[in-house]
Amino acid sequence: MSRKLNFSSGPAALPEPVLQRAQAALWDLDGTGIGILEHSHRGKAFRAVLERTIAALREVGGIGEDFAILFITAGATHHFSMVPQNFLGEADTVDVCHTGVWSAKVMAEARRYGHVHVACSSAPAFDTTPTVQTYSPSPRYVHYTSNETIYGTQWHAPPANPPAELVCDASSDLFSRPLPLAGHGMIYAGAQKNLGPSGISLVIARKDFLATRRPGLPPLADYMTYVDEGSMYNTPNTFGIYMIGEVVAWIREQGGLAAIGERNTRKAALLYDCLDHSKVWRAHAKPGSRSNMNITFRGTTPALEAALIARAETAGLSGLAGHRDVGGMRASIYNAFPEDGVHRLVQLLHDVERDA
Ligand SMILES: *Cc1c(COP(=O)(O)O)cnc(C)c1O
């Protein structure tokens, strides 16, 4: 059976050479005679996997020793509560850049611990990343979502002049372009968009920022536990760490983050160009705020959208329906999604428009 073109927003398409390597490693990791799922996390073979994964992340991401790299057995949603639990006292305020569904969840969780100030908002259309932020006098940190997976917007530069450390949910664009580490206290991401399987998150955080967390937290809720124990306080998601390492090694083979970022921009431009020249399809996000990862769009009629979905399924293009909360269409084209697949979607958009 042939594989489909998978436009899923996450879990999402992974690089095929990585999937093939992982198939072999399930059976026998690195010639050890034991599969990756079966190795003890304390053994030499897994140690080597962990070390090479962190080394690849540092090299490809340009991440220095002032930043910790942590693996946490939970999705990005876990950090919506864990970040304020660690950093937001009752009297503290977090400034949030509100750009959609994810930042709404960030704010709801932060309010359990302290105060929330909306530094900027693109509600209700959520079709931009606001250029002007109004910060509170002394926020504890400033949170933004670098890529709004559901509405299809992306910050092309982090929020300007933050008065405190930036904390970024980069779940859907981490390692899709060069990392903007400056000004950041923490960047976190669930792995299942660009980096690996679901159920594991990657945290890249300044060690001195982490050290300012509130004391007395339960060990698995305390970021410093992961620093002190090398993400091995308890049994980590060994397979997830293995997969992240292989995906990042694949990114290195593709020429690194600058090269993959250029390719992602080119892929997305093919689609936006098609949408902007169409009489029946319309991109949701405004130019300047458009995501290179999730291209959201609508047809002029529901019938047109239904026709596109139906013809896409027949042609082996899967996962184009928009998020259940916002409707419309969404093409998620992360790192591993092939350029040729984007050309096939563009052709289909033309075909459905012609036949309408
Ligand atoms: C997918 C996603 C999440 C949620 O990830 P989970 O693994 O389901 O917790 C959070 N933020 C963004 C930006 C996402 O794209």
Describe the structure.
By secondary structure, the protein is α/β, with parallel strands linked by helices. It folds into 2 domains: 16-253, Aspartate Aminotransferase, domain 2, CATH 3.40.640.10; 256-355, Aspartate Aminotransferase, domain 1 (Alpha-Beta Complex), CATH 3.90.1150.10. It contains 10 helices and 14 strands. The protein has helices spanning 16-27, 44-61, 76-87, 101-110, 207-210, 223-228, 238-253, 256-276, 302-314, 339-355; strands spanning 5-6, 67-72, 93-98, 115-121, 141-145, 147-148, 153-154, 166-169, 184-190, 201-206, 281-283, 294-299, 317-318, 329-332. A 7-stranded mixed beta sheet has the order 2-10-9-8-5-3-4, sandwiched between helices. A 3-stranded antiparallel beta sheet has the order 11-12-14. The protein has a two-stranded parallel sheet with strand order 1-13. Helix 4 links the parallel strand 3 (93-98) and strand 4 (115-121). The model has no long low-confidence stretch (mean pLDDT 97). Pyridoxal-5'-phosphate is lined by residues 10, 75-77, 102, 145, 149, 169, 171-172, 190, 193, 198.
**What is the distance, rounded to the nearest whole angstrom, between the alpha carbons of the first and last residues?**
32 Å
- Look at the structure and give the mean pLDDT: 97
Number of domains: 2
Give the strand order, joined by hyphens, for the main sheet: 2-10-9-8-5-3-4
